[in-house]
Amino acid sequence: MTAETGAPTTAKRPGYRRLPVQQRREQLIAVALELFASRPPEEVSLDDVAEAAGASRPLVYRYFAGKQQLYEAALRSAAEELAGRFTVPPDGTPTGQLAAVLDSYFSFVAEHHTGYGALLRGGSVVETARTGAIVDEVRRVALRRTLRYLGVREAAGPRLTLLVRSWISVVEASAMSWLDEGRQIDPESLRDWLTDQFVVMTAATAAHDPQTAGVLATLLEHDPQAAALLRRMAP
Q: pLDDT of 166-191, one tens digit each?
């Protein structure tokens, strides 16, 4: 109660600030991303987003027709952030560049652990063909960037493409297991293991594909770490 009138006091939500349209939309997406990162998407409501943003539910509906549209916008924003982390400085060996990408990737996974897990496992009630397409585009970006780090300038053939796509799947599965098992392996060790996996997978594919054999030859010529790994594995 107030001292002057005896009237009951009520809790107030954070003060509402009028923001430009684009800035308000970006704020709502940022808030939604934080919520989706800590809870499965189906457990986040528009009321939760409105409360966390210090806004009203009608205001959220002014920008997004419903939770599905907000989720897709948040996912697209996260996908763009993740794709941006695939860019590393142009200098360095191919395995060094892949290691730098993996560092950024696992940093992203750690920041968005719950939302990342719900997305890659599938089965979420908010998963649609559009959300799947957003994730597939991130994988295509990862494919193009990996080929670029390997020095592949011409069109990648089917076996080389399958090699890189398979390795990306290994990275995703490893990230899921890393989260599920409580991150028992330190990220640096996991990164080094996955980089070595790529070298070994490339060597195995090179035995069946001339284009990949050329990639391996260049890798061994310019990447001492990769060459040392294969020497250690040789009889």
A: 999 999 999 989 988 999 999 999 99
pLDDT at 131: 81
pLDDT at residue number 193: 97
Q: What is the 3-state secondary structure (H, E, C) of the chain?
A: CCCCCCCCCCCCCCCCCCCCHHHHHHHHHHHHHHHHHHCCHHHCCHHHHHHHHCCCHHHHHHHCCCHHHHHHHHHHHHHHHHHHCCCCCCCCCHHHHHHHHHHHHHHHHHHCHHHHHHHHHCCCCCCCHHHHHHHHHHHHHHHHHHHHHCCCCCCCCHHHHHHHHHHHHHHHHHHHHHHHCCCCCCHHHHHHHHHHHHHHHHHHHHCCCHHHHHHHHHHHHHCHHHHHHHHHHCC
Are the beta carbons of 134 and 76 closer than 8 angstroms?
yes
Sequence-separated (6 or more) residues with CB below 8 Å from residue 85: 101, 104, 105, 107, 108
Q: What CA–CA distance (Å, rounded) separates 72 from 95?
A: 33
Q: Which structural domains are found in the chain, ordered by start?
A: 21-74 (1.10.10.60), 85-233 (1.10.357.10)
CA atoms within 13 A on the CB side of 3: 0
The pLDDT assigned to 12 comes to 39
**What is the reported pLDDT for 13?**
41
For residue 218, with 0-12 CB atoms within 10 Å meaning exposed, 13-18 middle and 19 or more buried, which class applies?
A: middle
